[in-house]
Design goal:
By secondary structure, the chain is an alpha/beta fold. It folds into two domains: 176 residues, Rossmann fold, CATH 3.40.50; 159 residues, Rossmann fold, CATH 3.40.50. The protein is built from twelve helices and eleven strands. Helix 2 packs across helix 11 and helix 7 packs across helix 10. The longest helix has 18 residues. It starts with 7 loop residues before the first strand and ends with a helix.
Length: 346
Amino acid sequence: MSLTLGRDVLLFFENRDRDTFVRGDRNLRRRLRKTVELFRPNRQRVSGFEMSFKLLRLALARAGQRVHVNDFALARRNPEFPIGLCGHDHILEHRTLRNPAVLGPGIMDHPLQFPDLFDDPRNASYIVLCEWMRDLYARWYDRDRLFLWFGGINVADWPQGRTERDIDVLVYDKIRWNRETLVPTFREPVLDELRRRGLNFQIVSYGKYTLGAYKKLLARSRSMLFLCEHETQGMAYQEALASNVPVLAWDQGFWLDPNRSKWEPDPVPATSVPYFSDACGERFTGLDDFPATLERFLAKMPAYAPRRWVDSHLSPVTSGELYLRAYYSAAAHATPRSLERDRQQG
C-alpha cells in the first residue's frame, strides 16, 4: 500500500495488559476480562487509555485521514513514515520499528520514568493532555517537543435532555485518594450544604456506571458538582458541559497522586478542570469558599452556556488538527523531504 502524508496515519496502541507467560497471552486475558464485565453491568468497560485512543481515531477520521492501527508490516515497508505510539509504557519495550514517532497519549505519568526519552533519535515528540501537564514535563523535556492534545467531544452525542429537570445537582464523586478522611471531612459537609439549601441531588461514583445510565442522569440534571483532586482532561465533566449542564468544580490546585513524591519533592500545580471558562461554571478550592461559590453558581445558572463552549473549543475537528500538528512535526523529523512534499500536496 502507498502511504501519503496528509491522508494516512499509522497508529500503534497497547492497553494495560502485557504478555506474561507466552507471546500474545495479554490478548486472551483482555478477552476474558471483557467477558466477565458483561456480567457487571454497572461498571465502565473502557479504560482511560482505550477511550483516549478511540477519540483519537475518531478525530483523525473526521480530519479525513485513513487510520491504520497496529499494522507493523505496513510501517516496516515505510520506515521513514511517521507513527504514533499510544497507551501504556510497555509499548516502548522490544520496539523494532525504525519510524519517527509521536509518543502518546499515554505512555507515562512523569518524565523521570523515561528521562532519556529523546536520546532515542526515533522519538520526535510527546503528547500532553493539558497545560499543567505540559508545564510539568517542560521541567525535563524541551517544551517545543511537547504537543497539546485532547480527546474531542461531539456535542451531538450528548443531547441537552429535558426542559424540566428533576435533579438540582448531580454530584460526580471521583475522590481517588485518602477517601477515608475526605469523605467524612469534605464530601459530607459539602452535601450538607446542598441539603441546607433544599437542593435535590444524586451521587454518581466514578467507575460504577454505564455510559447509557450517565447520559440519562445528565438529561435529568440542572447542574453538576464535580469532586476530583485533578484531571489531565476530565471527560466526565466535559460530557456534562456538552449536555448543557453547568459545572461547579472542586479545584484544590495541586497534583496529589501518591506517586508524586517519588519524582517531585515540591508541590506541583494542577487543576481538576483543565478545559474550562466562565461560560462553563465555577470553581471552589475547599470548604471555606464553597458556600459563597455555590451561591454565585446558582445565581448565574441562566447565564452559563457550556454546550456552546464545548462545541467551540473541544470539538473532534480541533482534536484531529492538534494531533496532526504533532504528526507532521514527526514527519519533518524523518530524513527524506518527500514526505513533507506529500503532505503539502495532499
